[in-house]
Amino acid sequence: MKNRKIPAKDPLAAEVTKLSRSFAERAADPSYMDRAESREAYGAYYGEVSRSKGESLGYEILRRGAPSLFLKSPLRMLDLGSGTGEFALGVADALLSLPSLSLSLHLVDRSREALSDAAREGEHSRLSLTFSQAVLPDARPFLPGSFDIVTMANCLAENENSVEEFADLLQEISTFLTPGGLLLLVEPADRRASRTLLTLGDSLLSRHSPLSLLAPCPGGRTSSCPALEDPGDWCHEDRPADFSEFLLKTARSVGHVKDALKMTYLLFGREGTPAPPSLRLVSPLHKEKGLFFGDFCDGKTWWRIRLLTRNRGDLTRSFTRLHRGETLSESSPLSLAIAPPVDGRGSIDWPKDRQVVRLAHPDGRPFDSDDET
Ligand SMILES: C[S@@+](CC[C@H](N)C(=O)[O-])C[C@H]1O[C@@H](n2cnc3c(N)ncnc32)[C@H](O)[C@@H]1O
Questions:
Q1: What share of the chain is helix, strand, coil (3-state, %, to 5)?
Q2: Ligand 1 site: residues with CB under 6 angstroms?
Q3: Which member of 30, 198, 225, 358 has the lowest number of beta carbons within 10 Å of its beta carbon?
Q4: CATH number at residue 334
Q5: Model pTM?
Q6: How close is the Cα of 155 to the center of ligand 1, in Å?
Q7: Do both 305 and 243 map to the same domain?
Q8: pLDDT tens digits, residue range 132-147?
């Protein structure tokens, strides 16, 4: 029986279920944000998650961006497909944690009603909001302009047949990014949405635009994403998060598991320092009889790395402490390969005399001695 878990009396859970199904089936009615019931359900449920994602990635922007970028006042940010504004306002929360910073944020959405709600949400003495109602990617009333940070979250999944057109739009926008400026793209963590974003990212990289990829891929990836070589693969984040009891209750009613921030993201910079060469864990770590294994990406090749458990001690401890998205220091995985990689896939048996040096958390924070205890 469908919707078995939804109590008949919980209209929010019922509306969230409808929305969720329409997102999953890529069948969202383009006017869903114009209708009060679905807009409010979106804000009450997805809004909290989006705000947390925005905040988490906003802090990452502060960490990965050039410090000179955040000396600007006001910092000018553009958010595309803003809906009721939560993602952009989450990024804003993080940026405004710098006491000297003021932010001018321009929100764009096809839904005027959603933008009106966003206007009510975004109250902060150092934040000024402006709006454009526009159907992307063709309508561009916000151009020409000058932006320090451009974001787009959970919008491409509703436009997956227009990837190249969105790449055209973002390429044009990138020419209005100030030096050191950042472009952050975020989509849901499911295979289809993730691969669509990775495809858009490859299109941007292939255009010789002024953008380089700063995160999450190690080593400043310039060629195509190895995840796209195999239709079964995709790449996503799974970061710990705390949600309100209200959200968790709704999630339980709907039958969702909400225990982490799950998303695929790409952070481009006009200038800036990419993540250093390393191996990033892009799967859970698996245990089998006699060995542990996981999939790691160095930005060029997707490596299946195995560690035999007879290698007891510090090596196994360091390896098995890794979580999805974390990186370990290794600048020449090719030298460890069992055989030359084929179609972007390679295998490594981790040598027992080689240390596993954990380099960075998924958001780029380096590991320090506290993390080792
Ligand atoms: C899933 S919501 C995401 C809202 C917000 N960015 C977030 O992450 O919470 C997608 C938003 O993109 C807007 N949108 C989708 N396609 C659009 C398009 N082609 N042009 C303008 N807005 C669009 C929708 O109206 C909706 O508000």
A1: 35, 25, 40
A2: 33, 46, 50, 81-83, 86-87, 109-111, 114, 135-136, 153-155, 158-159
A3: 30
A4: 2.40.50
A5: 0.95
A6: 4
A7: no
A8: 999 999 999 999 999 9
